[in-house]
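## retry 2 of 3
previous attempt timed out at serialization; input unchanged, resubmitting
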Amino acid sequence: MLLRLKEEGPELQRKLNLRTTRFVETLNTHAEKVRAPVRVTYFGSWFCFNFPHDLPLASLFFAYMRAKGMHLWEGRPGFLTLAHSDADVERVITAFKETLAEMQTADFLPGGEERPPVPGAREGRDPSSGRKAWFVSDPERPGKYLQVGEEASVRD
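## retry succeeded, writing output
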């Protein structure tokens, strides 16, 4: 290993760090997409899964991952190494996605992919509150929209 480090120099660490960055970004992007309350932090080739402290069943994440062959020690960092192949990284990503879906289905984690309340609705922001809202085209006023929800109203 020392010879490899000497031969490849700092570029070896740079490539491994960039690989970890792509890995973590993939996990975080998926977690955001499915609105899962997990954030993966990292530094170099080190990464850690973080959940809000007010979710008592979030720690089941680690048992779910172990059941899929991914040993992650709760509260401890994981590391990508030169020994991990692209296939290994893909297996972790797949296990992560499956675990979040299974935990959300079982109501162990909040979230899940959000679907529009009516077909064709588009996501936007309520102009008065700034909160997320859904809108559909107003058939009587081309180019204008109706807000969908409990208090539907016309929005420009």
